[in-house]
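Page header: ASSEMBLY MODEL / two components / 563 residues total.
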Amino acid sequence: MASYGSRVRQDILRWTELGLIDKAAADALRRDVEANEQKSLSFGLVLAIMAALLFGAAILLVIAANWEAFPRLLRVGVLFAIILATYVGGALLKLRGNSATAEGVWLIGAAAFGGSIALIGQMYHLSGDETDAVLTWCAGTALAAAALRSGPLTVAAVGLAACWLFLEGVALWSETRVPQSFILVAAGLWLLSYWTASRASRNLLLLSLIFYATLLAVHHDMLIIPAILALVSAALFAIAVYAPDAVERIARIDGNMPVHALIGFLTGMTIIQFDLIDGTAPLVAAALVGFAGIAAAVVLGGRESRGLRWIAYLGFSCQMAFVYVVTVGTMLGTAGLFLASGLALGLVALVIIRVERRMNDAALPQGGAA
Amino acid sequence: MKKHRLLISAILLALLQIGFLSFIIAGRAAVLRDGQEVLLKVEPVDPRDLLRGDYVRLGYDISNIPVSMIGNVPSGAQWIEAGPVFVRVKKDGDGIWKMVSASLYEPPSTPPGDDEIDIRGMVDDGRGLGRIDTLNVEYGIERFYLPEGEGLAIERDMRVRSFNIVAAIAGDGSAQIKALMDGDTMLFREPLY
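Prediction written out in full:
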């Protein structure tokens, strides 16, 4: 990330020497680069957050080990003191301009809140409501994010919400309930992420919504759910490609909407194909829709986004492998299987190389024209 | 001004979270202090796998209730939805409280008599009544946290002797563990806080 700034500065220098831009424009560009650089993830913030996660893990582990050396009231008191000290101390650090450390310290506070919930469960031998505990922890963290306007705390709240969804929907296979209230939780966190200006949270929320749809589809085993997921994703993709500015103004996720839409589409198509695995004709039809969607995605949005292209390639390869194993794989002997796998893989590589070359060729004239 | 606002929100936030946690602790302690004490017989859940991390899993003789004991299952019902269940227990001659009846979804219509109390549990999974004649009920007291290293001995003893739990039952029927008994010997008694 840091290298982008220096690269642009070199470019600006070259453009000024070539006479492409005047000195005033060059200065304005440089100032803009500097201003935006500070906003992006700094190395210090990353380190502070990693340190905070380690501290947080230590707090949780101490609770989990049922640490009997101190009376429980003292343990609760220590946790309460940590909560108070981290939130207030973080605020003081933030006011002194030490944002990275402040965010890290606040994360420790959120971990201490979760640790206190676990400790209360242990004190009173409560059983059977880990999922409620995680949801409470999520709510407390979201509240902290709102009060302190903290991006990292918002991300933590989204992560806890996803964790809650996972525990409710996956961990206990017997009679699992996919919590419908996840939609409400996600909507609330989405709004919160505007207040805290956390793009990462919104990206994470979109992914967890896809996960939610997957759980619903697996749980209810109805073809309509993945179909809706694929259709909605395709529609979102179309809107994001044809009205990128409007979508970005609303969603504000660094133009990643097409990537998420493609992931949603591929997830939906994959579930559909697993559902149709018994009949060859419907399976092939679904696979063709999948291939068509990937091709359309690359043609329409591939030029702007390398991430989108890689998701498309990944989807394409998995799709190939899946169709291949289900239809052809069973008919061939081992040697034939290897031969055909080689051919199929070669085909995938060929397609990717050609697409990448075309994208680069198409990009060159643009650069030359400027 | 902006300075003060961030500090004040941080302090309020900390107090709110601490207050919330204290409120939960106070509620739990109130059950222990004021709840009606009952002695429940522990039955091993899964003798090979009692000890999970730092707690012992507990099952009770009232964890599996015969469907015939439930007063308000409609005749001819094929399916029982997940939901709360109220199990009425009565103090027996040996001091252990045993189930006398149960009521699905709502408290029984008749008030409990002398030496009787209703415990609130949950039927976690809906189930068909065709082949089963007992329901699995959870009371939220299926775990006992132990100090590190003490679990194994208790797990071993639990296989050969009968253990009991002293539970405190709140006014709404929710149960909470108060003490773990090895026969008549008290192994752990929980302080209020």
